[in-house]
Amino acid sequence: MKSKHKTYSRTFILLSIVSLFFLSGCVQSPEIKQFSQDLPQYDENLEIILGNIHTDFYNYDLDYSVNRLMNLLTITDSMVTGMKKEENNIKEDMLNFEEIAKEYQTAKSSININMLSEEDKLIVNKIDNKISEYNLNKEKVNSCLSKMEEYRDWIKLVNDNAKILEKFETQSILMNEYVQSEKYQDALSKVTEIQNTISQMKDNAQKRKDSGIQTFSTETIQSYDALSNSYNTYKEYINLLIDEDWEEAEIKYIEYSQEYSEAISMGSDEDASITEAINEADTWYQENIGVCFDLFESYS
């Protein structure tokens, strides 16, 4: 009997040691304990960032959509700067998300997931789903960011064009004033400035056309050359005034007026189709940037 009692005692001690071993593996591991404590913060941070990305896109569309900007009297430089800022916000959010996701995945790889509680496993699943959703849409977001840069460049061209047109109008007024004041040499200098400005207008229109956001007919592009050439005739008119050849000057002015009108008529498609141009640009905007506006909406 004594020997049998000893056998039972040894068996009990051995089972106790084995039980303690497994318990210590489940509960006492510092890595698992730390990972479990960090899980809610990982989940919250990633959710906040996804919500921020959605909000960034929402604010961008609210402030810088085609319909909003094209219906303003002027597009300011600060608006263009604001567009760049929103782009940078999205890029920063993406960087932050990826840094946190990398930290989480490194910590996760160092522990045995099976040792976590069921509650922690649910959080792990939520986090993994957020990372998967982000990775699934990352390429789309990067494409939208690339198109936002193209759109911002186009808006800058639209803004620059407004400034060039204003300069053209101012120069034209001064030129006419010089002619009326018989300051003919000053008028000739101003004509040269006007032709340089027309060259800038053509270059701007060509760049807007090349962007793919806005369409220009070949005739519209050619109208700038025709307009510039009409001012060559106007120079001849001024030189006739200098020579006091009034009859020939009058004939030359009529010739200039006809050339000028024809040039304006050639470019009239651009002015007459402003609504069409806005709709065209908006279609491009929706197809290339708008596809990101609903991403991560559930987190916002």
Note the topology:
Elements: H1 2-27, H2 30-64, H3 66-70, H4 77-109, H5 118-180, H6 184-210, H7 218-242, H8 246-266, H9 268-272, H10 274-288
Helix pairs in contact: 2-4, 2-5, 4-5, 5-6, 6-7, 7-8
- Total beta strand runs: 0
Low-confidence stretches: 1-26
From N to C, what is the helix and strand string?
HHHHHHHHHH
Query: What is the mean pLDDT?
Result: 90
- Measured as a percent range, the helix fraction is over 70%
**Content of β-strand:** under 5%
Describe the structure in your own words.
The chain has 300 residues and is mainly alpha-helical. 85% of the residues lie in helices and 0% in strands. The chain is built from ten helices and no strands. It has helices at residues 2-27, 30-64, 66-70, 77-109, 118-180, 184-210, 218-242, 246-266, 268-272, 274-288. Helix 2 runs parallel beside helix 5 (118-180), helix 4 (77-109) packs antiparallel against helix 5 (118-180) and helix 7 runs antiparallel to helix 8 (246-266). It is rod-shaped and about 105 Å long. Residues 1-26 have low confidence and may be disordered.
